[in-house]
Design brief:
Layout: H1 20-23, H2 28-59, E1 65-72, H3 75-84, H4 91-97, E2 102-108, H5 111-122, E3 128-134, E4 147-156, E5 161-172, H6 173-187, H7 194-224
Parallel strand pairs: 2-5
Antiparallel strand pairs: 1-2, 3-4, 4-5
C-alpha cells in the first residue's frame, strides 16, 4: 500500500488509485516521484510562459497569452495509454514513451499570437523542441485545430538534473471552446444524434477558423492606426 506521506498534497489534482502498486508493478513510490517530477516541469514551463507574457505586456503593451491551464495525466489514463501501446506499466516505459503526462494549455486571443508564443518559448536555450504537430495548418478531419509542441525542460533536484517532457497545446479562445465541446462528444457514450453532431461541429470549426482570421485582420487594422 502507498505510504500516506506519499499522497500528493502538493499535486491536489492527481487522484491516486487505491491499488497503485498493483497497477504500476510494485513501483508505486517511484511512480509518485515521477508525477512530482512532471509537476515540477509544468511549473518551470508555465513560469517561462508567464514571464514572456509579462515582458510583452510591458514592452509592447500586448498580452499574447489570455490564460494558461495545466494538468497531470491521471494514473488510470497513464495505465490505459500504456496498455493501448502494448507497454509495461513501469516508470521507465512512461518516461520513454509518453509525451503528454505533463500538459500545459496556452490560450491566446489571435492565431499569430500562437506562433509568437511557440517561437519565443522554443528559442530559450534550456528548452529542447522534440516534436511539433501543427493542427492549425493541418487541421484534423473532425475540425480540431491547435498547435502542439513536445518540449524537454531540465528540472534540477538536490542531487541530479533530469530532462522532462511536457506537451504544450497552444490555441485560440475559439479553438479551445470548440475542442472542449468536441471532447465531450468523444468521451460520452451513446450520444443521441451523434452523426449529425459530428457534422455540425465540423461546420462550426470552419466558421470559428474564418472568424479567428477575421478578428486578427480587424486587430491588425486597429494596431496600424496607433
Ligand atoms: P486528453 O484527455 O485531453 O489527455 P502521440 O502518441 O502523443 O503522438 P496523441 O496522444 O494522439 O499521439 O497526440 P496528439 O494528436 O498530439 O493529441 C494529444 C492531445 O491533443 C489529446 O490528448 C487531446 O487533449 C488533444 N486532441 C487531439 N486530437 C483531438 C481532437 O480531435 N479533439 C479534441 N477535443 N482534442 C484533441 P488525449 O490523451 O487524447 O486526451
Amino acid at each position: 500500500m502507498l505510504d500516506s506521506e506519499l499522497q500528493t498534497s502538493y499535486m491536489p489534482q492527481v487522484h491516486l488509485p487505491e491499488d497503485m502498486d498493483k497497477v504500476f508493478e510494485h513501483e508505486a513510490k517511484e511512480f509518485v516521484e515521477m508525477l512530482m517530477m512532471y509537476n515540477c516541469a509544468i511549473r518551470e514551463v508555465q513560469t517561462k510562459l508567464q514571464v514572456l507574457n509579462d515582458e510583452l505586456s510591458l514592452t509592447r503593451n500586448r498580452n499574447p497569452i489570455q490564460f494558461i491551464k495545466n494538468r497531470i495525466k491521471q494514473p488510470e489514463s497513464i495505465a490505459t495509454k500504456l496498455k493501448k501501446k502494448g507497454l509495461p506499466h513501469t516508470v521507465k516505459a512512461v518516461e520513454e514513451n509518453l509525451n503528454d503526462v505533463a500538459g500545459i494549455r496556452v490560450i491566446c486571443a489571435f492565431i499569430d499570437d500562437i506562433y509568437q508564443v511557440a517561437d519565443m518559448l522554443t528559442a530559450q536555450d534550456d528548452i529542447e523542441l522534440i516534436k511539433t504537430k501543427d493542427y492549425i495548418k493541418n487541421p484534423k478531419k473532425n475540425g480540431y485545430r491547435s498547435l502542439h509542441l513536445i518540449v524537454e525542460v531540465p528540472v534540477f533536484f538536490s542531487d541530479c538534473k533530469k530532462k522532462v517532457r511536457v506537451e504544450v497545446q497552444i490555441r485560440t479562445i475559439a479553438m479551445d471552446f470548440w475542442a472542449s465541446l468536441e471532447h465531450q462528444v468523444k468521451y460520452k457514450k451513446n450520444v443521441r444524434d451523434a452523426e449529425n453532431i459530428v457534422y455540425e461541429l465540423r461546420a462550426c470549426a470552419d466558421v470559428i477558423n474564418r472568424t479567428d482570421y477575421h478578428m486578427q485582420s480587424i486587430r491588425d487594422r486597429i494596431v496600424e492606426t496607433d
